[in-house]
Amino acid sequence: MRSTITIMTGIMLLFSGLVSADTITDLRPAINDAAARHGVDPVLMEAIMRHESANGTSFSARRRNNLAGIMGRRGQRQYGSKEDCVNDLASILAKYRQRGRVTVAQIARSYCASHSSWTRHVNGLMGQIRSGRFGALEQASSED
């Protein structure tokens, strides 16, 4: 009975807006996996997604699964899943790295039009992510 009340309380809080699910935090395993496969920083990926999608709440994030503001020939790209967008972002960042674009400012020059404010916001979000503002980051396992 007690667990039923706890679950019901959680559901009520979620729908009342007092507690909200965080789409991007929930995607951290996919972000970490894609970042490791492509050799890019998962914190940078998360910061870009938080900035570009207003923490996962933008129209493109909700309707197009585009958390990263990734553009195509006809506007923002649409993805079959949020994980597809995560993988595409990791691939894009890997291509930038191959071209010598490794800092947020260097990436911004290619990634967006308003690169100075974008750089400032993404750097700020990276600091917040690292400080635990959106929950603790997973530590790499020391078991090999």
List the helices and strands and how they pair.
Elements: H1 2-16, H2 23-26, H3 28-38, H4 42-52, H5 59-64, E1 71-72, E2 75-76, H6 82-98, H7 104-111, H8 115-130
Antiparallel strand pairs: 1-2
Helix pairs in contact: 3-6, 4-8, 7-8
Characterization of this structure:
This protein has 144 residues and is an all-alpha fold. The protein has one domain: Lysozyme. 61% of the residues lie in helices and 3% in strands. The chain is built from eight helices and two strands; from the N terminus they run αααααββααα. Strands 1-2 form a two-stranded antiparallel sheet. A hairpin with a 2-residue loop joins strand 1 and strand 2. Helix 3 packs parallel to helix 6, helix 4 packs across helix 8 and helix 7 packs across helix 8. It is globular and about 35 Å long. The C terminus is likely disordered.
**Count of distinct strands:** 2
The CATH class is identified as: Mainly Alpha
CATH T-level fold name: Lysozyme
Helix content: 55-70%
Q: How many structural domains does the protein architecture include?
A: 1
Mean pLDDT, nearest integer? 86
Distance between the termini: 42 Å
What is the succession of H and E elements?
HHHHHEEHHH
Q: What structural category arises from helix and sheet content? A: mainly alpha
